[in-house]
Sequence to fold (211 residues):
Amino acid sequence: MHRAELRGLYAITPERQSGDDLLTDVAAALKGGCRIVQYRDKCSPAPERVARALALRNLTQVFAAKLLINDDLALAHLARADGVHLGKDDGNLHAARLILGPEKLIGASCYADPDAAKKAAVDGADYIAFGAAFPSLTKPAAPIATVDLFSGAKSCLPIPVCAIGGVTLDNAPSLIKAGVDLLAVITDLFSAPDIAARAATYQRLFEEHSA
Fold:
């Protein structure tokens, strides 16, 4: 998956799921058409995170999907993941590129800071994420990235733009119309009664916009 193919629903795993529930829910998202998954786990012990990351690697390969690891270069290497996503305090992006090589994907959180996004692009990011796009249950203190910020970023950045934070089916169309390439979703996807159907609906939003 090259930069130009980074488009659509970007599933980010919720915290505090058992390993079996995690795999079941991610499998449902993949069955619904999601092809990019980020394993985000701030709570589990290291052996559990390694086991879950390896299981997710195997699962995503079945669906020809990409697996990224949140904030952990070592875990990404151990799990043979397709890349990492880094926050502002999670290491040097340029160094991560040197360590991972040119083939791996690297995403960078830039919150609501367009200057940070420009620097991330220069330092080797494959996509940048702004957020929270809307008030978020996962990060309630995150600054709000406005729709104008997304549309402005698309006009000046050479890499895909991702929206994260508070994304739902109701507000997603406004972000896609602003040029957002990826919609990173946790709660609205994994709390849905039918995760596969919810994932498919998100994917259709991108297809409708491209039509």
In short: The two ends are 22 Å apart (CA to CA). The first strand starts at residue 8 and ends at 12.
